[in-house]
Design goal:
The protein is an alpha/beta fold and 290 residues long. It has a single domain, classed as Glycoside hydrolase/deacetylase (TIM Barrel, Alpha-Beta Barrel). It has 11 helices and 9 strands. The radius of gyration is 19 Å and the shape is globular.
Length: 290
């Protein structure tokens, strides 16, 4: 099925109004991605281009850039998120449980939600057997966590036309890959429905810093502009704002203060709360029943 076969077009004007619990005006959804980059493959991203612009394998410079995020950046971000009272969804390559078990255990000990993000950072278009990779990702996380993840982000936010059917078959209940709405929407699959939670690609450190090459302070400026608009609109209907981070980007010293100031100011506003993906999902499913 193509996307328009999975979800009917529905303008937000004129929809039945969803309702947050009393005292909640707006929800912030922090998303922290933890990935495994296999040095035998091309790196998922580059901070430094190779000589003559020809990708080289092994790519030690860009591999070590990501590795800093797991060795140092994650721990810096964890302290920051705890200081501001943000409870993130951890979108997790399954292989991270094997390569960086201390990092995953720290997330589990903090009570954070684990969300499946493929087995390793390889686009879904490039894997030979999507069903096998999806199941391996979920089962690896389940063995470590003791729970099956309910949500999924594709590596690089990638899907083919069949991916949602494989995800539903494997028991995934929500995705974060689609940015088509401010509210959760229910997607049709060959099995059980899957909910697309409101995500965005622009309050997102990869887009800001590796695609658009903005200075560090733009994280705060853009996030606050987005928040101010949504917060005003939230007086009339519920709004959810995702903020996406990666330890090798947001966890470096010259950016952390801007990221922290963003979360602190937003979560300091009246009626703003931090929810995980599964909290948003359960609220939305409850609204559908009501």
């Amino acid at each position: 099925m193509q996307p328009r076969e999975r979800v009917a077009f529905s303008p937000i004007e004129g929809r039945p109004n969803l309702k947050f619990p009393d005292g909640v005006r707006m929800v912030i959804w922090p998303v922290l991605a933890l990935e495994d980059w296999d040095i035998s493959r091309a790196m998922a991203r580059m901070v430094i281009v190779p000589p003559q612009l020809q990708p080289l394998l092994p790519d030690h410079p860009n591999w070590s850039w990501h590795e800093y995020g797991m060795r140092v950046g994650f721990w810096r971000m964890k302290k920051m998120l705890e200081r501001v009272g943000a409870t993130p969804t951890i979108t997790l390559n399954g292989r991270v449980c094997e390569s960086y078990p201390q990092v995953v255990q720290a997330c589990v000990d903090a009570g954070w939600e684990l969300n499946a993000h493929g087995y390793e950072q390889v686009p879904m278009h490039k894997v030979e057997d999507q069903r096998a990779v999806i199941n391996k990702s979920i089962e690896t996380i389940e063995r470590f966590w003791g729970r099956r993840p309910r949500g999924w982000f594709g590596p690089g936010l990638t899907q083919t036309f069949d991916t949602l059917d494989y995800l539903s078959e494997a028991g995934i209940e929500y995705i974060g890959d689609w940015v088509l709405d401010d509210e959760p929407v229910t997607l049709k699959t060959k099995h059980k429905p899957v909910v697309a939670l409101p995500y965005n690609f622009e309050i997102h450190d990869i887009v800001l810093f590796t695609s658009q090459y903005h200075p560090s302070a733009v994280f705060y400026e853009r996030a606050m502009d987005q928040f101010d608009c949504l917060y005003e609109e939230a007086a009339e209907r519920p709004k959810i704002m995702a903020i996406a981070c990666h330890p090798y980007l947001s966890g470096v010293p010259h950016r952390l203060a801007h990221v922290e100031r963003t979360f602190a100011e937003i979560l300091g506003r009246e009626g703003v709360v931090s929810w995980t993906g599964e909290q948003i999902l359960d609220w939305y499913l409850g609204q559908q029943k009501a």
